[in-house]
């Protein structure tokens, strides 16, 4: 900013003569005029300074913002969120990630009849693609005076494409979500099913309804589809052979409590549950309670050994049936002599087992079975869990009958977890249908000593080696188990025709990993079993085949040579040394 | 002097304006493109999702069992078929000399694996 000093102030006019040659233009100011000029000059200077300062600040700020602050400044164009498919309901997968239930988008076909020009031709074209629709019905639908009519819900992608390609005006597609179960009936009881609005109605679909709705992460079940398939195949084969009305089977990992397979037959198609009879939708494994019969001798024997009431070398005289009140307790195949505890177990003697239970006493029996979780409702993920039928009051006669598995009805789920505790070293693990995280340590409750568990493993192995469960011997896999045949309660009395044959086993017995359970409901004996329909004849072969097929898949090495060379001898507890089976 | 400066600034403003609009339209175009890409990704994900369901359906154990037995002649594994590596017999004679001597010519008519298998 320049201030020309030559510019004369109006009040200060110097005496300038035109004729004077180039006299310097000298400004002379005097008095008040000079004063006010100085004031103006000062003001201008101050203003200029203020402006200069202002521009400097702006400039500095500009440098600050553009050079130094760039990193911290938020970017206007934010990174677009990555897109994710929202299906509205998470998948359910098995322990290996095989999809058991998923939601797929489908198209449903509807029409606006007002916009359909030639209903006859359209009906003909559509029936060519959708042969299940009748042409007449379609024509009537398309001729209706309305603006909306469903033609078909949930088209397949191929149908969708072909109808779309026809390009018929007045036909429209509505996008819908459809819950599909790729493995259908195979896992129907565990997975459950949903209603038309994809809301869980049974099984895990109901138990984890909220979780499934709110997430996109698949729900991992503990089931292994391969084991499930093997169990289903073998059980249905047995059902056909013995003309049974139903069957149930479970495989449980005794080290984690995970349910590996859970099969209830007959089963149903989860996409059309309404068409299935109630019997098919009934989950025999968790909801059904049964008197299990002789498999309960596992618990009676374990109890007697645990309380120290008997040792492996003790025994009882089983030659006489036990009479109590109006009942007579007898053996299926009486041995009529003194039997040692292992023999009582191996030959499944009711009389001997009752003697053992009576010596232990009612209170101890109640306590022991309670600790094994057999007298209270199992805690399990599925909503369909049956309450055990416990006698009340628990009298002496109940103690006797429960000793060999009558008078106390439990679900296969309870039985399997309790046997898991007997063989795994004495710890009861909560059974679960959810896959445990790898390496997760499961806290179990000790229900018996390591020693009793070891003795029971040996006894169960002996049953399969020499006793009633010989048909379950999958050579090389060290199977141990116990047969069970229970008469069914029809009305108020036990039927001698309708029975439940079962077999519970664990393998490999020197270091049990899996409990395998098979139960056949109302089998009828045939020629190949000489008319017998007992657990040893009907259910034990199922277990053998399941173990033989499961073993290689689950990485359990068969030890055929070791087993024939006397691997069983290593199982024998020290307390039983010198024990000889009388029959051998 | 003032005129030149003014022209310069005018030109600068014009360039800046053109540049701004150019960038703006470019961003709009890219955003539209991004939207399309997102839609394509979603469609692909949906297709993959359906294909996963179909894959699971095609892997039904009973179907696989049937296919394996019909086309490959396979069946459930028997315990006797499983052998540990340490159970395999050791090499008969250790190779003493190097290079390894050539294998003798197979005698004519000697059964090979193939013909044995066919004969069975």
Strand content of chain A: 15-25%
Structural class of chain B: mainly alpha
Q: Major sheet of chain B, described briefly? A: none
Can you write the helix and strand succession of chain B as a string? HHH
* Euclidean distance between termini CA atoms of chain B: 108 Å
Structural description of this entry:
- The complex is a heterodimer of chains A (584) and B (120).
- Chain A is built from 19 helices and 18 strands.
- With 584 residues, chain A is of the alpha+beta class.
- Chain A has a domain of 349 residues: DD-peptidase/beta-lactamase superfamily (Beta-lactamase).
- In chain A, strands 1, 2, 3, 4 and 5 form a 5-stranded mixed β-sheet that branches.
- The N terminus of chain A is likely disordered.
- Chain B is 62% helix and 0% strand.
- Chains A and B meet through strand 2, helix 8 and helix 17 of A and helix 1 and helix 2 of B.
Helices and strands in order:
The complex is a heterodimer of chains A (584) and B (120).
Chain A: H1 31-68, E1 92-93, E2 99-111, H2 119-129, H3 135-143, E3 149-155, H4 157-166, E4 171-180, H5 188-191, H6 203-207, H7 209-214, E5 219-220, H8 225-241, E6 246-253, E7 259-265, H9 278-281, E8 290-291, H10 297-306, E9 315-317, E10 322-324, E11 327-329, E12 338-340, H11 341-346, H12 350-360, H13 362-371, H14 396-403, E13 409-410, H15 412-423, E14 427-428, E15 445-446, H16 450-466, E16 480-490, E17 493-507, E18 514-521, H17 535-553, H18 560-564, H19 567-571
Parallel strand pairs in A: 1-5
Antiparallel strand pairs in A: 1-2, 2-3, 2-4, 6-7, 6-18, 8-13, 9-12, 10-11, 14-15, 16-17, 17-18
Chain B: H1 2-58, H2 61-71, H3 113-119
